[in-house]
Structure formats: structure tokens, C-alpha cells
Amino acid sequence: MGKKEDPLAVLGTLPGVPESVDSVRQAMDRVYGHRVMRRRSNEVAAEAALRGARGSAALAGADWPLEEVRRRSDFGVDDEARTVGAALRLTAEAGQLLSIWRHSPAQALARLHLVAAGGIADGDTVGRPRRDGEPVEGEQVGVALPDASEVAARLEGLADLVIAGSDAPALVVAAVVHGELLALRPFGSYNGPVARAAQRIVLVGSGLDPKSICPAEVGHAELGRAEYVKALGGYASGTPEGLAAWIAHCAEAVGLGVRETTAVCEALQRGAA
């Protein structure tokens, strides 16, 4: 019996994608080789998590200064504060879901949504995919909203791909998981933060960023919402060009996240952070 088809592996060969993959791998290798990482990787990871959460919240409409995110302890006072709080909780939770993700992506996604929306959204909608007629709140992503039956089918297909594993580079798998969840918006709220947390899980669980020191969310925020939405439109089109453009966009965001972490390492080395 032949090996099961690996549709994600094909994406790794699209024009420009191998170069994006190589660029990200080299950047990761450089930051992991920084002398600060030998003894202070936990501090770097904690700072990366904070900055990543800030970036994800900014994309979801709560663009707070980093120091405000660092300083605040009350995240329940208004919509922006709740968005920042959700992003912080998701970033912390992502690292706890690596083994669950590999065996049951649907369970991991339900947990991510519960962590983000629990106590905020209608309790009946938390932790489960939306049903027909239920509204979707949160950031607008510029692509048509699929109906509930399409969401269910595509989520099942995505879960099958994750469980089966792929020979595709981690960057490609992470970009597809991120893009698919963002395009589907499977939950009634916090879909963007959940999609970005799932990307983080893939990047960490794949071994590309095993210590979770690269806040790709920073890069996505730095590139801006307009470019994010434009690139997602390419993903949603399903064309080879659109898919390659989305993967390249995700690669650029990861590269900018590495740059952010390199700056953190250098600040720690100087004793300035």
C-alpha cells in the first residue's frame, strides 16, 4: 500500500517558498546561537510571549503599548482590555497543548477558545465551532464567512492533516493552520488570536522554535493589518500564487519576530532588560 498523499508537501515546492523556508531556518539558527540563549532562554521566552501577545491583540484591534501590557493586571474592564487579556492567556496556554495538538487538534482548538472567551462570551458558544445563524465577532479579515457545514468539514480535514503528519517544512504547516483557521473563523469570537496561537503551537511543536522564543505575532502586527488581510485573501483564493504569497507573508512575520528576539537578547546582554 502506497504512502498517503501529503498535500502540504506540494506547497513547500511553490515558487519562492523554499527560499522563505531557508531564510526562516537560518534566522532561527542565528538567534538560538546567541550567547544569551545559553543561560537565559527562559527570560527570553517570557519576554517573547509578552510581545507576541501584544502583537496578536494589536491585530485584533487592541493596539496597546508594550509597557501598558506589562503593567496592567486588570483585563476585564472593556473590549480592548479583554482582547489583550485573551491574547496573554492564549500565549501562555499554547505551550501546554503541544501533545494534545498532535493527537487531537479539535480538542486543542476547543481549549484555546475556552481560554480566550471563557467568562466573556455566551457560555453556550465557548469551546465549540459555531452553528448556522450564530454571529461571529472580532477582527474582520476580508474574506467571505463560510457556513457552519463547510467549517465543520474543513476543520475535520485540517485535523486529519495534522494527525497524519507532513513532510512539509514547519513554516508551511504553520502558515496553513493559521490561514485556514483565520479564513474559517470557526468560533463565535477571538478567531484571530486563536489562529495565531495555533500557528505558535505548530512552530514550537515542530522543533523550528522549540523554546518558543520567536513572537511571529510581532511580525504580523509590524507588517500591518492591511498586508495581513491582503495576504489572507491570497490564501483564501486557493491559487498557487495566493498560497505562496501567504506563506511568504508568514515567513516575513517570523523573520521579524526573530529580529525582535535578537534585540531582546542584546538588551539582556547589555543589562538593559
Describe this structure in words.
By secondary structure, the protein is mostly helical. The chain has one domain: Fic-like fold (Orthogonal Bundle). 67% of the residues lie in helices and 0% in strands. The protein is globular, with a radius of gyration of 18 Å. The model has no long low-confidence stretch (mean pLDDT 94). This is Oxidoreductase. Residues 104-249 form the Fido domain.
Write the layout of secondary structure elements.
Blueprint lengths: L6 H5 L5 H16 L4 H23 L6 H6 L7 H16 L3 H6 L1 H13 L30 H17 L5 H15 L6 H15 L10 H8 L1 H13 L2 H31 L3
Helix pairs in contact: 2-13, 3-5, 3-11, 3-13, 5-7, 5-10, 7-10, 8-9, 9-10, 9-13, 11-13, 12-13
Low-pLDDT segments, ≥5 res: none
CATH domain class: Mainly Alpha
| Cα distance spanning the termini | 56 Å
- Order of secondary-structure elements: HHHHHHHHHHHHH
| Shape annotation | globular
CATH superfamily (homologous) name: Fido-like domain
The gist of it:
This protein is mostly helical and about 270 residues long. The protein is about 65% helix and about 0% strand. It has 13 helices and no strands.
